Amino acid sequence: MEGLKLNNAPAALFVGNSNDERKDLVAGGRLILSEAHGRKAAEVRGDKFEARLNDAEYRETNEKLTQRTMMFCAKIAAAARGEEAPATYAEFLKGGRKWASDPNFLRCLQGITSDVIAPMLPYTTSNALGALAFVDKVGIGQTYEVNVLSNDIFLFQDSSWGASRSVPKNSLYSKSITINPKPRSAAAKIKWYQLVGNEQGGADIGRYYLALAGGSNNKILALWNGAMTTGVSNAAFVPTYLKKSGYNTANWIALAKAVSQANGLPRESIIAYGDWAALSKVLPSGTAQDAALTYGLGPDWFSKGFLGTCMGVPLAPLQNTYVAGQVNLASPTEMLSASTIYMLPRAGEGFAPVYIIFEDDPIVLEMSPDQTADMTIDINMTISVEAKGVFGSKIGVMSSIS
User: Fold this and answer.
1) Alpha-carbon span 155 to 161, nearest angstrom
2) Domains of the chain by start residue, with CATH
3) CA distance 227 to 234
4) Residue-wise pLDDT tens digits, 89-122
5) 175 backbone dihedrals φ, ψ, rounded to 5°
6) What is the dihedral of CA 336, 341, 347, 352, to 10 degrees?
């Protein structure tokens, strides 16, 4: 079964309606969010992303969508007040303090935001984690079930005619794993002028959508990391022979060979994920030919910070992040280990180690004005999601890379 991927998001999510302004704004918001997230992943990991807009179109669409969204919300709020709606964006900006504190304006904006982000979250999540996570949705109040089939094969024994039934019996075991999404909430603030820009431009609703989706993805990344850490420490999931401490050429060969054989896949079907600081260490090491082998690898390594492929195994960086709320501290904590590399089957070749399941229910988003000089808006957002280790395919872990 194919998981939800940004490139296979249904086209209907991005189709507007010229006769329905709100629907058109929601479709445009999803397009901008998809483009922003996809471009970021393509830039960081070199993932293939089928952009729908070029750079100039993205900037123009983003600016116009911001203005159209704000004007629409102002029109709804003005109608509730019995007032004339602003005729131009400049006129809207002049009434900024009024709109930033108007509950009808904020309800309209939070409704559009919810409709933009809710169906896109599973796709942006899968885009961030690649083959390390399988992302799907389940109905409201339902349980998601994963049936993990046996990875064993039958053992043939030496025998003789007439004694074939005396050999030990083999068994193929399967296991069902259930996943129940749970609510996760976040509180945030956004400054009015960062959202609406000014008469010279600067309006960036794409950044606003990406920040909300990014905050959700940060929490989901933490859930994934917890499930991954628990699974790796379980010897039934990751046996000793699939763990190596420290990087050198011999360890790389041994781990790639073990992951390949454990999953019955060729080496080219294995992929290695890690923080780029760990991937940057993947160079010839521990052999008498290190200097000669490294010669010529410099341009590739220096341009990206890591090799694209090592001994037939592609390398893919994970976009690490700081723990939410710590980015402005003197020494923030990284969410993921910067000294670990995971080897596993490519997407579609086996089970992802962790399943992330969303409840197919709109996110709950509430916006309220904070009476401050810079017109800050308080945002409270809740999503229903869970991450659980499945480890139906064997993965390799190389840790303590320095």
Assistant:
1) 18
2) 235-352+390-399 (3.30.1930)
3) 11
4) 999 988 888 888 899 999 999 999 989 988 888 8
5) -140, 135
6) -60
